[in-house]
Amino acid sequence: MKVALGVCGGIAAYKACEVVRSLQDAGIRVQVVMTAASQEFVRPLTFAALSGEKVITGLWHSGGVQPNLDSAIEHISLAQSIDALVVAPCTADTAAKFAHGQADDFLSTLYLATSAPVIIAPTMNVEMLKHPATQENLSVLRKRGVRIVEPGSGYLACGMVGAGRLADPEEIVAAVLATLGIVRDLAAETILITAGPTREPVDPVRFLGNRSSGKMGYAIAEAALRRGGKVILVSGPVALEPPERADVVHVETAEEMLRATLSRASEANVIIAAAAVADFRMRIGSSQKIKRNGPMSLDLEPTADILAELAEHRRPDQLLIGFAAETKDAIENGRAKLRKKRLDAIVVNDVSNPEIGFDSEQNEVTILTANEETAIPRAEKSKIAHRILDAVLKLKTRSGKAVPAH
Ligand code: PMT
Q: What's the pTM value of the predicted model, to 2 decimals?
């Protein structure tokens, strides 16, 4: 999703930085559009650095030197590509332009050109806000369907006390997310996710591994973050960029994954074990590279069962979700693992199908709980991740393991 964030000239312009960050935390791309006056308060560079996007600073001139033909038509392409236009802070002047359809800068032109929902957070001096002209403008906008995040009361930068303060960035972001239908239903949860394979050394150059790419576990991490959750991601060696806001612990072997998960488990209300942990390791690894004419058999021993250890040490308010990678009798085997590992749910996938499961973009799973079986048809792993998280929330509500929101 993509949002254009209009920033107008007011002392509260700096608070738009927090709005940018929070929208990004919800997985939204933010294109900042600054009015000329706002650039007196905050430098475009600040927003460019925060948003990772070029900041739009004018309709005709970029940097006030050369006509910028790109931006002359940019308002139309941007208007068509955004899911919402947010203006925070919105000055009396910009509200008046919007109400009267005046289009003399990029932001007011964008407002006229877009059919996306518009949310504005006005801020101004108390008398300016009370003025019938401003009130009429806001009322016109309200009637047109513009969502207004009402200003709060308090001490204003002009020295007066009263209504006119910019609403809290959290309130502005909540209004945007509600408008876009984005839920933050995991805001109260800390979710520990294991992902990827483990590697068990054979000798200094070789290891026992498996085909897990980490995509499933990373998709769950990304989805949980978007829904407001705090994520601890214990990751085996993968070639993926971890989600920016996840607390990532990199591990290599099953033993390291065991230690990392056990040491962080007490912080989590939900544990989801999507990692493909090696089931065997060398009883005694070779300290030297094994030669072609060396021993041709490997003496193996089982690794620790991480889920079993987690079940042993779990807190009563924790939910424990496992995965089952099966090649036949998937549901039957999954149900046996659910019971044996004392899990609240298990996500069963058929890893004999090369189009799903290991190292594919898609998956197709069945979520088993003690008394339910929910088949999730084939979809991108990001979508499957959301369905798994839906199931987690359902389990929480049923089991009373929900924790109050912070
Ligand atoms: O990473 P991708 O390429 O996206 O592929 C996704 C996946 C196929 C790896 C994933 O969807 C999946 O099925 N993960 C579990 C793989 C697995 O090891 O399944 P299992 O049936 O062998 O193990 C059952 C459960 O016990 C798993 O939750 C596993 O994390 C856990 N386990 C296994 C072995 C072990 N020593 N300790 C464990 O805790």
A: 0.80
